[in-house]
């Protein structure tokens, strides 16, 4: 009997809102995962030359203490995370927007 009852506009808009919220959650999750992967890779790619230069180069040995080395590595990792996460969220949202427009 419930199949014959039409949904009210409020129920339709709530269903659409739930669908949009789920899509936004999925987009942000994809961004977090991609950003975390980029941060790990950036940390490794930055840590190796930073530690090597702090041991081998006289200027770096004199001027880069452990705090400076950690700051260099964490800054690069943080920047990589936010840049990649932002680009991933925007790309996913754009893709979903085009798919939604083609379905209508």
UniProtKB/TrEMBL annotation:
<keyword id="KW-0812">Transmembrane</keyword>
<dbReference type="InterPro" id="IPR005050">
    <property type="entry name" value="Enod93"/>
</dbReference>
<feature type="transmembrane region" description="Helical">
    <location>
        <begin position="32"/>
        <end position="54"/>
    </location>
</feature>
<feature type="transmembrane region" description="Helical">
    <location>
        <begin position="66"/>
        <end position="85"/>
    </location>
</feature>
<dbReference type="Pfam" id="PF03386">
    <property type="entry name" value="ENOD93"/>
</dbReference>
<protein>
    <recommendedName>
        <fullName>Early nodulin-93-like</fullName>
    </recommendedName>
</protein>
<keyword id="KW-0472">Membrane</keyword>
<keyword id="KW-1133">Transmembrane helix</keyword>
């Amino acid at each position: 009997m419930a199949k014959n009852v039409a949904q009210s506009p409020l129920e339709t808009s709530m269903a659409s809102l739930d669908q949009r919220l789920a899509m936004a959650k999925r987009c942000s999750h994809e961004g977090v995962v991609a950003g975390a992967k980029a941060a790990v890779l950036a940390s490794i790619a930055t840590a190796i030359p930073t530690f090597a230069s702090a041991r081998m180069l006289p200027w770096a040995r004199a001027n880069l203490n452990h705090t400076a080395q950690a700051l260099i590595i964490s800054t690069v990792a943080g920047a990589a995370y936010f840049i990649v996460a932002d680009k991933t969220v925007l790309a996913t949202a754009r893709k979903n927007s085009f798919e939604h427009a083609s379905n209508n």
